[in-house]
Amino acid sequence: MTFLGMPLLRSTRHDDHEIPGGQGNIVEDESFAGVSHQHLSNQQLRNNIGHATATIRDKRSEVVAELDDWEALREAGSRAKNHVMENLPEYLAEFEKNFTAAGGVIHWARDADEANAIVTELVEANAPVLENGRREVIKVKSMATQEIGLNEHLETQDIDAFETDLAELIVQLGDDKPSHILVPAIHRNRDEIRDIFMDKMSDAGDLTNEPAVLAEAARRHLRHKFLTTKVAISGANFGIADTGSLGVVESEGNGRMCLTLPETLITVMGIEKLLPSFDDLEVFLQLLPRSSTGERMNPYTSFWTGTTPGDGPQNVHLVLLDNGRTRALADEHGRTALNCIRCSACMNVCPVYERTGGHAYGSTYPGPIGAILSPLMTGIEVEENGSLPYASSLCGACYDVCPVKINIPEILVHLRGEDVEANHSPVSSQLDAALTGASWMMSDGKRMAAAESGLPIAHAVTGGEQINSLPGIAGAWTSSRDIPALPEKSFRQLWAEDQARAEEEDDET
Amino acid sequence: MKIALFATCIVDAMYPEVAQATVTILRRLGHEVIFPEGQTCCGQMHINSGKFAQAEPVIAAHARAFSSTEWDVAVAPSASCVASLGHQQPMVARRMGNEALATEAADIAGRTYELSQFLTDVLGITDAGADLGSYFPHRVTYHPSCHGMRLLRLGDRQSNLLRSVKEIDFVELPLADSCCGFGGTFSVKNPEVSSAMLADKVRTIQSTGAEVCTGGDASCLLHMGGGMSRFQRTGNFEGTPDVTAVHVKQTSSTEAGADNADQLTAVVGASDDDHRIPGDQGTQPQEPSQVQSGLRVGQSAVHLARILASTKEDPLRVQSEGATVSGGSLR
Amino acid sequence: MTDTAREEILGRINQALGRRGGGEYVSSASGTVPTGSPPSATGSEQSHGTSGEAEAAGADIPAAGGGMVNQSADYLRTGTHEGEDLIELLIDRLVDYKANVHRVSGDPAATIAGLLDSGSKVVVPRGLDDSWMNSFSGEVSVDAPGQELSIPELDAQAAVVTASAVAIAQTGTIVLDGSPECGRRAITLVPDHHVCVVRVADIVDIVPEGIARLTPTAALTFISGPSATSDIELKRVEGVHGPRTLDVVIVDT
Predict the structure, then answer these.
(1) Domain Cysteine-rich: where (chain B) (predicted)?
(2) Cβ of A167: how many Cβ atoms within 10 Å?
């Protein structure tokens, strides 16, 4: 990315009027450091997530290692998505033209509220009112509808939305929140899931904690809904501009059920999900499953283009969602975050995510990608989203596994700069003061030498002992770490003495 | 060759012995070493805190110091700081509208090497024992720093040099590629998460039974040493949530590592058949007592420059030989 | 409402990309048919310009569509397996994902019949080779346009037998394309047992070769093993909502 010589960070945005940020489930309402505390203390949660991420990391590495051209595929994936973002109006128009020509209907939604309203209207027009006075829809797992809080909204409109993905079902029945974009119930183990099913599934019967038994229970529970519900709601993994096709990548067959059996299909998709051409799938259908579930290919992938006579829903709608995506696009240092294909590889390798779990991020999008995507979509100044870019040790593991090469660490640092600019970091004012002092000192070697000349005194004051406890912000360090005794002299001093000695010796000889 | 030493701020102020060891190695190979006096810091601490405006004068100080004298290459005993010179300094200078500084910083970065990078790629040294006389008859495990692995792509340069040290008993660190949790100001802004990462790292280090844990970055070693010291002193990480989700599995391919399998099991308390994680498929919190059974008093952290500088005639001594360990760092 | 939303979103995108006049939008429908930019053009020189540059660029913004971005990419576009190796790879990958694989030369009728419960109900698409069901003694329903089985009728079928459009060996993937011998999507979804015939001629090695053989606008279903989930502790369990048994019959003709 090139920078065009503009003097200040803020001006890198095209700022005549600010593009509105997104709304909904993309806002951290308590600072990450604060909210992560309770999750870190939850031993069960950490064991569950630690186990699951370790498993999926191994699976991913194995199948990625099978492909000699993996790096070339990543490069191709990155290139294709960058190209889409740079030409997004053209690709959206092309997609719209083709999807519409194939019998689909497109709706545009500026934000979460607008998308929820559109979907509600479509459901009301197409789903019958049942005996209980409510309407029903079935849903395929979709990050976009999670982001806009669609289920909660529909609930208020007398519409019951039934999640059909097993993990989403676990979350919904447990009155819980997703904590991972691929495996939303990753924070639950088999015993907890069995308890939720026994408690909330009227037709569950007596269950063991065997995953196969639990999966069978979900099949029984949802079968009738699949076969009878008139309206389904889905997300989409890909929109193909040159054909107007949509695609959903899944495992269980619940996606196929929703995409095939109902009369009406409503898909909600972010505007950034486009690929230029059907042929680009040759790259993305390799990148996504291997990065995501660690499989060579996921069990089921479906593509549909508008309506297909005699096959599947004949009433097909697509809601194209902005909700802050254009705001993210406006940040030229952060816009590649929109390249994300929601594989979740970054969270599976993230040492922070592994220990806090997904709920700590306060957003539909947890982990490293969430730490950049949420503030990019809302604006860094919204609530505590400014704390998210600091939720990283910048170890870089996320960038290495990203199938579309989003340089997450670099964007994290960029967003920290944005946060500082927005003057939104009241948390560590002592740290800020220390850094300001350090900047002054380190701007000049003489000042640093002068500061280091205090070492002998400091060494004496501390008695040459290691430091086990410090007050204030430094106490955050000594909460779990000791500090070595200060050396008596800095290297700079030792070097100068050494040089002086050498010169004396030279003089003597 | 005329080599400019970039000591880095943490080594200069906290670990002068690491800079001395670096000078020793370079002189032993017949090179002239200079120390550009105005040098301070790479600026990473400020950059990673988002304080680009405060980083700029620090970057300028580095550029001034290293532009003011003639040298062939610059060498630093730190992957992270070298990476910052190339990956961050020009970017920040450019953002601050200082194109001239960006160019100067990029030029200096292009001629600055991390120590193992310089030894391996520039000097072609593959056998530290033969070429440097390195000698260190102790059990050593090695933590590759994140920035060395992922920004400089050091690969096995550091571990190969260490393995070739005479009499060394090199033990693979399980889950070596996991971050130790330092992350600069991350350790202060998110101290609990950082501590949880550190605790897992310390347990894997303990599981190796190594007397020292080494690496190429003093900052990570300060952090890991601080954690090892705290754990050895108190048996836990007081004030932080107890950490048991350490997913140790036997990754060692060395004999020493294989010998150590029993100890590993003791640390992780693993009873599942795939050895992936402790407990029953992650369903049961682990008993702290199992975790602590791997505790080994006397472990310390030390920069690899000092191991490479160690010779039979002038050996680096470890704690069991009477050396001082302070805050987990071998002095 | 949505028309306004459309214009506003497109305006925001133009603004975000730094193109002139936030609200203005150049339709590609009226412009030249795009060919996709070569990889070298996917850098930032086009759309990160200042307003002055963007005005000039506005006239020939690389219009979208018509081709893929990666035409000159250096990833593999063709595989290296052929003949028996290719078939062996497909079998290996299918079995790895818990599909049952059967191989026959010539007429698959006896093999197919052997996989079905005699006397059970089986649905087939109207274009299926008639002879394939010759050895089966149960009740065969033909699903055809205008004579579609209802969902309850499909639910009463024990199995479905179809052909396939293409099989990708490297990933163990079979693609159905809604053609007369593959049938509409519902028939391979509702019954719990899918017997799928793959002709050796339809096997390709890697994903790009498979994509190249497909009709993009058909209703496509990629199947890699039976329905499965890894949602409980990342442990893969076969058999959730889709057919729980997948039998693949590979036919040398």
Answers:
(1) 3-85, 140-224
(2) 25
Specify whether the CB–CB gap between A189 and C228 falls below 8 A. Answer: no
- Nearest chain A Cα to C168, which residue? A297
What is the distance between the alpha carbons of residues A282 and C238, in angstroms, rounded to a whole number? 26
C225 touches chain A (CB under 8 A): yes
**Topology of the domain covering A87-323:** Rossmann fold (3.40.50)
**What residues of chain C, 65 to 94, have a C-beta less than 8 Å from chain A?**
65-70, 73-77, 93
Residue of A nearest to B222 (CA): A483
Would you give the end-to-end CA distance of chain B in angstroms?
Answer: 30
Beta strands in A388-448 (DSSP E): none
Amino acid at position B116, single letter: S
CB contact under 8 A, A491 and B19: yes
User: Which residues in chain A (8-47) have CB-CB distances under 8 A to chain B?
Assistant: 8-9, 32-33, 36-37, 40-41, 43-44, 46-47
Ordered by where they begin, the domains of chain C are 2-59 (no CATH), 83-252 (3.40.50.10420)
Taking alpha carbons only, the member of C87, C26, C16 closest to residue C60 is C26
CB contact under 8 A, A492 and B328: no
| pLDDT given for residue C234 in this prediction | 81
Nearest-5° Cα angle at A136, A134 to A140: 155
Quick check: B113 and B73 in contact, CB under 8 A? Answer: yes
Give the distance from residue B141's alpha carbon to the nearest chain A alpha carbon, in angstroms.
20
Nearest CA in chain A to B184: A393
Q: Residue A485: name the closest of B248, B140, B222, B245 by CA.
A: B222
Q: What is the pLDDT of residue A507?
A: 80
Q: Where are the domains of chain A?
A: 87-323, 429-508
The answer, for C191 touching chain A at a CB cutoff of 8 Å, is no
Q: What does the alpha-carbon distance between residue A122 and residue A85 come to, in Å, rounded to a whole number?
A: 29
Of B218, B40, B234, B197, give the one whose Cα is nearest residue A484: B218
CB C235 within 8 Å of CB A211: yes
The reported pTM is 0.90
Inter-chain residue contact A82 with C42, CB threshold 8 Å: yes
A307 touches chain C (CB under 8 A): no
- Among the listed residues B225, B316, B220, the one whose alpha carbon sits nearest the alpha carbon of residue B20: B316
pLDDT, tens digit (0-9, with 9 covering 90-100), for B220-241: 999 999 999 998 888 776 444 4
Q: Does this complex have an ipTM over 0.90? A: yes
Structure tokens given for A477: 């360090």
Report domain B2-118's class.
Answer: alpha beta
Q: Show residues of chain B in contact with A413, CB under 8 Å.
A: 47-48, 50, 88
**Domain ranges across chain B:** 2-118, 127-330
